[in-house]
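Researcher: Next sequence.
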Amino acid sequence: MENNITSLEAVVTEKFTELVMKHKLTNINFKYLKKRYMYLNWFLMTITFLLWFLLIISFINIRFSFLTVLSSLGVIGQVILILVSLVTLSCAGYLTFKYWKAIKLQKLIIQELPLAEFYQIAMDAIATKKYQVDTVKKEFNLFPRVGVPSKSEIRQDYVINFQTTNVNYSFGTLTRKEVIDAGKSKDIIYTRYPYLTIDVNEAWDLVATIKAMRTFLKIFKSKDNTDLESTEFEKIFAVNANDQILIRKLLTPKVIVNLIELANDNKKIPLMQFNGGYITIVFSNYNVNSFNDITGCLLGFSFVGTYQEAITNVINVICKDLEWLLRSLQWIEAYDFKQ
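Model: Next structure:
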């Protein structure tokens, strides 16, 4: 595994270097994306506007006690204000230019790097099974068929589309923007939804949903039309199916044991929907700050610092993404599908 991770580092470094040579990028550095430079830029702009405010006051001869010294200088004081404001404005402009240049460079690198190749190398290093990574893009090859929010603006984040010999997979997130009218103001809420979708390439007639059992006052329970032999399973999961024979072929004693173990090892149980041979697993959603927030999504690269630090960030993010993916795959590996 360590050799494969070393191989990933070598390939990422090589591809980064090729991009630098291709676009003739010199002195590549992402330090201006650091928060301290952003705060400094905000501070300089604030000082600039304050100086302009003082300059306007001095021109229209509005007298304030705290401007006595400045007023006594007359034209010289105004010249000082102009010069200092030009300096602060120039510094703020320089930082802004460097910031947007770094943002543009980051987008360019992400667009042109062979991400599928990187994820394939890491997948071979981490996964015990052989998976073939097809694409890494902002599109589900297998779009979720359940749990997709409606009546809101939705965007697809990055998705890993991959396969084994008999099964196709898509793993990624959707982000919803919801505008809530609160009278005089409007609140904007962004929510991110993770999904794992699978096509097992088998013609089933089964339509079923398996989710966490919810109870209220030990009287009201989640809808459940399937009674299985395991009382422990019945306490944890609610199962609804259109065919009681087919659902029992799916939920064999071995599968039931696997699902119980997974439920005990995880705080939250995803919703699993079976629609023929098409499976959608919906994991718990969470709030983020915007569509561009990298929290809880794939390819959450943060190029801050030097060239080498950017390479290290790419490697760390890829490994973290695949660890998340493999944890999610446990919910489908619990079943006896031919993968």
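Model: Residues 75-112 form the longest helix (38 residues). The mean pLDDT is 84.
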